[in-house]
UniProtKB/TrEMBL annotation:
Region (Disordered): 51-75, 208-279
Listed name of the protein: MscS Mechanosensitive ion channel
Membrane topology of the entry: Multi-pass membrane protein
Biased composition (Low complexity): 226-238
Record SUPFAM superfamilies: Mechanosensitive channel protein MscS (YggB), C-terminal domain, Mechanosensitive channel protein MscS (YggB), transmembrane region, Sm-like ribonucleoproteins
Cellular localisation: Cell membrane
Coiled coil feature spans: 94-142, 292-326, 368-409
Location of the Mechanosensitive ion channel MscS C-terminal domain: 617-704
Keywords, alphabetical: Cell membrane, Coiled coil, Membrane, Signal, Transmembrane, Transmembrane helix
Biological source species: Pirellula staleyi (strain ATCC 27377 / DSM 6068 / ICPB 4128) (Pirella staleyi)
Length: 738
């Protein structure tokens, strides 16, 4: 048949190309081993050939990419700086810092004087509010006892209470603003003191008035500008306090020695994991060259300069943050001043309305003079509030100007930091290149020392694999000849399956053994590796017993050829067609399309309904009136004609077999016969055969009877007339014989 012919052609082509592909497989294996060897060498670079991860810049950094540094809680993005960025000289920085320090001192003094002033807005608002609060409570107390007052007095007191209540509301709002302004003044003093400390520290650094060592709790002062880094030496960078930047850290010589020791005892690929006392890779101890020592000194100096430049940028950024806080507080004071101006205007308008009301009501001259005096005070307070608003606006504009200057200084510091960072990165890349054991000279020398022995090991591995391939071919032929079950092609397929498993296992053993020998040759200790593998294997064996059992059962199933793909199985209560077989599980799909994943370790018994061949068994019921011999002959004729049909002939592998009468049922006689089919053809053949039998029975008038039941009624005794129930029909009575 076409499918079998195509399968045989594919198998023949595979067998013909097996030997031809052996050379290519060996070449691929050799290439893979060399790649693994180079990878292991890369993983075992000596620890002293790399700096700690948190003090190391990338070896190759693109100059067109943005460098992002975390500075405290703010992120400073070191973007490529254009050539038009203005460089700020030290003289300009000193002048600006001196002016900023003087302004900060003056403002702090003014704020403290305002807090201590007995005639400040807070004191005045407090006194006014307390006075009105006392009056309002007194009037409310009188109105709470109306029995002691005349009606006219109650009206006057209510009118006076309403007027005082309006003034009380304005005084309360004014006092609330004064309280909020006083709190803001305290915040301003704290922010200005912090800004003053940073500006003074920056001024000391720029002018060269550095203090000796700062305490551990003191925050970092301002750093030098970017263009003055060249004049600072490494001792200043080492003695400066930590500023919280992730990469701008300075180390003492003792800490460097400690870090070198820790780096020597840790894996360069997995920092933080201690290596065993005897390193797996024992590199030959060689004295560093003069070029490498000079490159290391240069890289160390460049790194210190880059860290110093980064601290400078961080200092400017911190000053901008402090200035932003001052601007925020000043804007808050400005908003409070504007509200205070509005309240003063409302008070003046209220006084004006009260004066007009008194004038119309015919008040005395003394009352009018008093209200005019209050009106003038309210107007003066309004004008003072407007002047304060203007002063606050000027102060905010001044702070914004300072911020613009600091932003220019920040851009210059960032540009300098980026330049120093690139120089440090270049120097570090040079050191890394000099330390690289894969340089051409080192590689050539290494291959001259170890290449011949490794070549002998690789040739031995290839020879063993070639011998294994010959043995596999011989084993397939032997199993195909001596096998007893199935056709020769099936036996060959079975043999190739088992040989493939054995070939993979043997190839793995050869590769592992050769790799261990190569490890020994290159200087990698095999004993620690084997010990670690044993520990891991033991842990896996204890923790995954069910998984190991599944794999073992799967191997046994494949070894015994219990079933294969497309077989119809019944495993426990699940029946379906095999869609996939692995060492881990068997996948079945039932007739409804449901997929069942069954672990091989849970398979106790298997019923293979398509192993080699199948049988379509039919039970045909006919009526008792039919000629059974004639019916049996008709059934055999229908089955024989179907076997001769070209459409179904290839699925039927034997003549039909009549078994005879299976049972004498209540309604019909059951005739059983069977027909032998190929696997997976039982159900299609059975359905088609039933269809043909039904059509043939209809042509010949043979009836397949329905189920019948005969019920006989019998009465053993005659009912007495006394037991008759009126309205019911009694059964017939039997007569007594004489």
């Amino acid at each position: 048949m076409p499918l079998d012919l195509h399968r045989k052609e594919v198998i023949a082509m595979t067998s013909h190309d097996a030997h031809r592909s052996l050379g290519f497989t060996s070449l691929k294996t050799c290439t893979l081993l060399v790649a693994c060897f180079l990878l292991l060498l890369a993983m075992q670079v000596p620890a002293q050939a790399a700096e700690p991860a948190d003090h190391e810049q990338p070896a190759s950094t693109s100059k067109n990419e943005s460098t992002e540094e975390q500075v405290g809680e703010r992120t400073t993005v070191l973007k490529p700086v254009a050539e038009e960025v203005e460089t700020i000289s030290a003289a300009e920085q000193i002048t600006r810092l001196q002016r900023a320090v003087q302004n900060d001192n003056d403002q702090i003094s003014e704020l403290r004087e305002e807090l201590a002033d007995p005639m400040s807005e807070y004191k005045i608002a407090e006194a006014e509010f307390q006075q009105l609060e006392t009056k309002l409570q007194a009037i409310s107390a009188q109105l709470n006892d109306p029995m002691k007052l005349a009606p006219d007095e109650i009206t006057v007191l209510q009118t006076e209470r309403d007027e005082i209540a309006e003034k009380h509301k304005l005084a309360r709002d004014r006092f609330d603003l004064a309280i909020e302004s006083r709190r803001t003044i305290h915040d301003q003093i704290a922010a200005l003191e912090e800004k003053l400390r940073q500006d003074q520290a920056a001024l000391d650094r720029v002018s060269g008035n550095l203090q000796p060592a700062a305490s551990a709790t003191t925050k970092p002062a301002g750093e030098m500008p970017a263009d003055s880094l060249a004049s600072s030496d490494a001792a200043d960078a080492a003695n400066s306090p930590e500023n919280g930047s992730p990469k701008a850290t300075s180390e003492s010589p003792a800490s460097e020695k400690t870090s070198d020791k820790s780096a020597a005892s840790q894996s360069p690929m997995l920092p933080g994991i201690d290596l065993p006392a005897t390193p797996i890779f024992q590199a030959p101890a060689k004295a560093p060259s003069k070029e490498l020592l000079a490159a290391e000194d240069e890289a160390k100096l460049r790194k210190e300069l880059a860290e110093q430049a980064e601290r400078d940028a961080k200092s400017v950024t911190d000053r901008i943050v402090s200035l932003d806080k001052s601007i925020e507080l000043e804007n808050k004071q400005l908003a409070a001043s504007r509200k205070r101006s509005d309240l003063a205007y409302q008070s003046a308008q209220a006084m004006e309305r009260e004066k007009e009301k008194l004038r119309i009501g015919g008040a005395s001259e003394e009352q009018l003079a008093a209200i005019r005096e209050q009106r003038e005070k309210a107007e003066a307070h309004f004008q003072a509030a407007r002047a304060e608003v203007a002063e606050r606006i000027d102060r905010v504009n001044q702070l914004q100007s300072q911020r613009a200057l600091l932003q220019r200084e920040e851009l210059a510091a960032i540009a300098e930091a980026k330049l120093k960072l690139e120089e440090a990165t270049t120097a570090e890349a040079n050191v890394t290149n000099l330390r690289n054991p894969f340089s051409p000279h080192n590689l050539i020398q290494w291959f001259l020392d170890h290449g011949p022995k490794i070549g002998v090991i690789l040739i031995s591995m290839l020879a063993l694999r070639w011998f294994l391939s010959l043995a596999n071919h011989r084993f397939v032929q032997m199993m195909a000849i001596r096998g007893a079950r199935g056709t020769q092609q099936e036996r060959e397929d079975r043999a190739r399956t088992l040989v493939g498993v054995f070939h993979n296992a043997a190839s793995g053993a050869i590769v592992v053994s050769g790799t261990l020998m190569i490890f020994e040759e290159v200087g990698i200790a095999v004993a620690p590796l084997m010990g670690g593998a044993a520990v891991v294997g033991l842990a896996v064996a204890f923790g995954a017993q069910n998984l190991i059992r599944d794999y073992f059962y799967g191997f046994v199933i494949l070894l015994e050829n219990q079933y294969k793909l497309n077989d119809v199985l019944k495993i426990g209560d699940i029946a379906g067609q095999v869609e996939q077989i692995t060492l881990r599980m068997t996948v079945l799909r039932d007739i409804e399309g449901n997929v069942h994943f069954i672990p091989n370790g849970k398979i106790d018994s298997v019923t293979n309904m398509t192993h080699g061949w199948s049988r379509a068994v039919l039970d045909v019921p006919v009526a008792y009136d039919e000629d059974i011999d004639r019916v049996m002959q008709i059934l055999m004729d229908v089955a024989t004609l179907m076997r001769r049909d070209p459409e179904y002939a290839w699925q039927i592998i034997d003549d039909p077999e009549m078994l005879g009468i299976e049972a004498l049922g209540d309604s019909a006689v059951a005739v059983k016969f069977l027909i032998k089919t190929r696997p997976l053809s039982k159900h299609p053949i059975r359905r088609e055969l039933l269809r043909r039998i039904k059509r043939k029975f209809d042509e010949l008038g043979i009836i397949i009877p329905f189920q019948q039941r005969v019920v006989h009624h019998r009465y053993d005794e005659m009912l007495d007339s006394e037991s008759d129930v009126p309205g019911l029909l009694a059964p017939p009575r039997s007569k007594k014989r004489a």
